[in-house]
Write a structure and sequence with these properties.
Blueprint lengths: L8 H13 L11 E7 L2 E9 L1 H9 L18 E4 L17
Antiparallel strand pairs: 1-2, 2-3
């Protein structure tokens, strides 16, 4: 990310698709995306929540011809940074998409 904290558009599209495919268990309000940046000697984590407008944008552009490069209208209003607390005790569950 080179120091710029921007959530990539493909991440919003993937997140929106997962929520759309799992409406019974995912609401879109309680899930976050965590990005990792590796620099020489350190690792940075940033947490984002996709906004309602971002979820709508992601679902609209999920199957766009030519991929995300042809998607229009992506902006910083599609996500917001959220606070993240790191702990040695984890609660909840973690989902990782296959393939």
């Amino acid at each position: 990310q080179n120091g710029v904290q921007v959530l990539p558009a493909p991440d919003v599209i993937m997140h929106s698709g997962i929520i759309e495919d799992n409406k019974k268990s995912w609401s879109g309000q309680n899930e976050i995306i965590i990005t990792t940046s590796f620099t020489q000697g350190s690792c940075s984590l940033t947490a984002y929540r996709v906004t309602d407008s971002g979820l709508q944008w992601g679902m609209k552009n999920r199957n766009i011809v030519g991929g995300v490069a042809n998607a229009q209208g992506y902006s910083s209003s599609c996500y917001e940074k959220v606070q993240m607390l790191l702990s040695d005790r984890f609660q909840g569950f973690f989902m990782v998409p296959e393939g």
